[in-house]
Amino acid sequence: QVQVVESGGGLVQPGGSLGLSCVASGSIFSISTMGWYRQAPGKQRELVATVSSGGSTNYADSVKGRFTISTISRENAKKTANLQMNSLKPEDTAVYYCKARVLTLDYWGQGSQVTVSS
Prior knowledge:
Layout: E1 2-8, E2 10-12, E3 18-26, E4 33-39, E5 46-52, E6 57-59, E7 67-74, E8 78-85, E9 94-102, E10 105-108, E11 112-116
Parallel strand pairs: 2-11
Antiparallel strand pairs: 1-3, 3-8, 4-5, 4-9, 5-6, 7-8, 9-10, 9-11
C-alpha cells in the first residue's frame, strides 16, 4: 500500500516558476515509477513527466526544456518526486496530480491547482 500526498502549486504570472512536491509513503521500495499528470478544465488528464526507479525520465513535448522532475528516496521510508516548472505559460494552468505506480496499481494524490495568469 502506498500513500501519495502533494504540496505546492498556486498562482504565478506567465514566465514565472513554481515547484510541486509529492511524497509517497508506505511500500516505497515497490514503486517502479513516479510521475506528474495534469488536467485542465474540459480536458482529459495528460502526462507531464515521469521518473523511473532507475532515474530515467520522460516528458511531454509541451513541457520539455521548461519542467524538470526529480526523485529522492529518504531514510524514513518516504520517496519524493519534485516537479520544477519554469517559464510557465497560461496553457500550463491545470490541476496537477502525482502518481506512484506499483506493478499494475496506480496510487494518486489529491491534486494541486496551478494557475498561470497575469
